[in-house]
Amino acid sequence: MTARLDTPVGSITAPPGTPTVSLVIPVRDEERFVEACLESVLAQDYPADRLEIVLVDGRSTDRTRELAAAVLADRIAEGRAQIVDNPLGIAPTAMNLGIEASTGEVVVRADGHTALPPDYVSRSVRVLQETGAQCVGGAIRTLGTGPVGRAIAAAQSSRFGVGGVAFRTGRPTAGPVDTVPFGAWPREVFSRIGGFDPELVRNQDDELNFRLLQAGGTVWYDPGIRTDYFATPSLRRFWRQYHQYGEYKIRVAQKRGGFASPRHVVPAAFVVATAASLLVAVARRDPRWALAVLGPYAVANGAASVAVARRTGADPTRVAAAFAVLHTSYGTGFLKGLWRWRRRDRRR
To answer: Rounded to whole angstroms, what are the CA distances from 271 to 97, 115, 268, 290?
Structure first.
């Protein structure tokens, strides 16, 4: 059973009036990004004596830990930062270990692929206090390196690519949502509804926030809370990432008894409809059936790719490929999840 959040836990105060914050950062093999991430953390305008940094390393095989230790050396010596070992190497156990090792009244999640603006922590805390929400977060500005990475970043930030996901598309208005990335929570939330589900290699933040909503809490999106996120530069990795998102979305739905939003079903419906049209085309020996779904999709993809390319400067052909990878990988992952967990108890 999920404990109810019957009383607001967003109103948090601590002498001298500024709550202590634990910034938890799961990392694994992030040597390309970890220095920039931690430097942005050290540049926060939040009072340094109220901010604790907990980096949780999933036993990186590159120089991630070495580089992180060098950047955080002074804070570690002052007792205001620590590096925690994560033997399983996955994000949910990293967050649980980081929360367990931390002491702050507010827990803020960052990511090794992110760079935070100086007011990220202070604004998150302020929005928690002003709204009384149990989780707050904001918009992601997805950045890409190289022509493929820029195309992927453009696709991930487009309504055609991800639907109406507020934090991806940068919705300009604040308000309640079903989830946010890299959230900020009052510590009491975890004692009431539990931590991150270690079974969920992907979508663990979605499941936690869904659980929070079902417990009567509020997840609040504020466009003023912004994060720079560096997209993968590889279509192959992009496929794997979104295939897992689709696959694990089924497990989240089983555990929570439904989907937080109907948009999660759309890519799978597209894949099924496409497969059905191709089968009919083969059975009837009429190639026109193959265009029943792929034709309109190609037109929509092309139009969206050109529009996104004009706005972002990305190559439209690569953007079209990124859209196709995003939709088909998520959809096939969703279908794989239906099969993989077809006999699993939804609460276990």
So the answer is: 38, 35, 5, 13
Question: Nearest-5° angle of CA 338, CA 341, CA 346?
Answer: 110
Q: How many whole angstroms separate alpha carbon 281 and alpha carbon 268?
A: 20
HSE value, Cβ hemisphere, 13 Å, CA-based, for 60: 23
Residues with Cβ < 8 Å from 127, sequence gap 6 or more? 133, 136, 184, 220, 222, 224, 225
Q: Which two tokens stand for residue 289?
A: 């059936």
| Contact status, residue 48 vs residue 78, Cβ threshold 8 Å | no
Strands 21-27, 51-57: pairing kind: parallel
- The dihedral region occupied by 163, where left means phi > 0, alpha psi between -120 and 50, and beta the remainder, is left
Per-residue pLDDT of the chain (348 residues; tens, 9 = 90+): 455 565 444 444 444 579 999 999 999 999 999 999 999 999 999 999 999 999 999 999 999 999 999 999 999 999 999 999 999 999 999 999 999 999 999 999 999 889 999 999 999 999 999 999 999 999 999 999 899 999 999 999 999 999 878 888 888 999 999 999 889 999 999 999 999 999 999 999 999 999 999 999 999 999 999 999 889 999 999 999 999 999 999 999 999 888 877 788 999 999 999 999 999 999 999 999 999 999 999 999 999 999 999 999 999 999 999 999 999 999 999 999 999 998 775 554
| Residue 230 identity (one-letter amino acid) | F
Among residues 264, 238, 229, 241, which one has the least CA distance to residue 318?
Answer: 238
